[in-house]
Write a structure and sequence with these properties.
- By secondary structure, this protein is an alpha/beta fold.
- It is 31% helix and 17% strand.
- It has 10 helices and 12 strands.
- Strand 9, helix 8 and strand 10 form a beta-alpha-beta unit.
- Helix 4 packs across helix 6.
- It is elongated and about 65 Å long.
Length: 313
């Protein structure tokens, strides 16, 4: 079995040795330009076009992250980048659910208890108790009900929040109201006080966080975007905040990363910025899942995290 690995940021040595220890009989190598030697599996993140093109012998391409938008984007721009019929598999959870729960809970509670506003008052040396939010009026809406969305919804429900989710198809989540399809989006947005975006990045979801969507939320709503920067129309968010429609936003992802130093988000007093760290790939857990999926494919079983390329997730 031959495995090729490419990641622009990960330490290749750790992955090569980690996969080898789990699959001792496999031959695994770091892919470099010009490498056209045989490969049964490819482990990748933002792979160059030439890495996968024409590799019809591949049994599977593993994206080393929860999203596959970078790979599919490349396929749309350069058809044929992904060999036809080769399964594309993404990571599911591998420690990311817990990280997302931590990030979201800390952010939601910060807004619910108005800690962001108290921080601004502190800077002005103002002693002023604020009227607390009430659980029954502080509805949390989650765009996206995949593995991460469900995990976040369950955790927020444990804190007593009224939680609702919206997705392409109906989902069953205990204690969480489910809305599905474009026709149900307005009903989902109506009454939502805090909106969390965990949608996959597809042509249908690009720019979904826009003026039209913001106008349907409760007044002084909060936004948390931890999916992709492409989901957010940045000018629309700034306009909605300046108009008082959106009270505050926590953003972990951006259209351009790193965020340029002159970007207005940096200096906005009600925008919290983090550098795309809401949930990161944990190598050991990721390698366990990749190897388990390779074994599943070798045994003729369907791998966990198989991507529907037409849908984009």
């Amino acid at each position: 079995m031959n495995i090729i690995f490419y990641h622009p940021f990960f330490e290749a040595k750790q992955w090569l040795s980690g996969i080898k220890s789990r699959l001792p009989t496999a031959n695994i190598r770091q892919w470099r330009r010009g490498d056209t030697q045989p490969a049964d599996y490819a482990l990748v993140w933002q792979p160059p076009q030439e890495m996968l093109a024409k590799r019809t012998e591949l049994k599977g391409v593993f994206a080393l992250g929860a999203g596959v938008d970078a790979i599919l984007d490349q396929e749309r721009r350069h058809p044929g980048t992904l060999p036809a019929g080769v399964p594309l598999v993404r990571l599911e959870d591998t420690g990311m659910s817990l990280q997302m729960q931590e990030y979201v809970v800390s952010s939601v509670l910060r807004y619910f208890r108005r800690m962001d506003e108290y921080h601004l008052l502190q800077q002005q040396k103002i002693w002023q108790p604020l009227e607390p939010h009430q659980h029954d009026k502080f509805i949390v809406g989650i765009l996206g009900a995949g593995v991460l969305g469900k995990s976040v919804a369950h955790k927020l429900a444990e804190f007593g929040f009224t939680v609702r989710c919206w997705s392409r198809t109906p989902k069953q989540i205990d204690g969480v109201a489910s809305f599905a399809g474009k026709e149900k989006l307005p009903a989902f947005l109506q009454g939502t006080q805090l909106l969390i975006n965990l949608l996959p990045n597809t042509p249908e979801t690009v720019g979904i966080l826009n003026h039209s969507l913001f106008s349907q939320l409760n007044a002084n709503a909060y936004i948390i975007n931890i999916a992709r920067g492409a989901h957010l129309l940045e000018r629309d968010l700034l306009a909605a905040m300046n108009a008082g429609k959106i009270a505050a936003a926590t953003l972990d992802v951006f259209a351009e990363e790193p965020l340029p130093s002159m970007h207005p988000f940096w200096s906005h007093p009600r925008i919290t910025i983090t550098p795309h760290i809401a949930a990161v790939t944990l190598p050991e857990a990721a390698m366990d899942q990749v190897v388990a999926n390779i074994r599943a494919i070798e045994a003729g079983r369907e791998p966990v995290g198989l991507v529907d390329v037409a849908r984009g997730y």
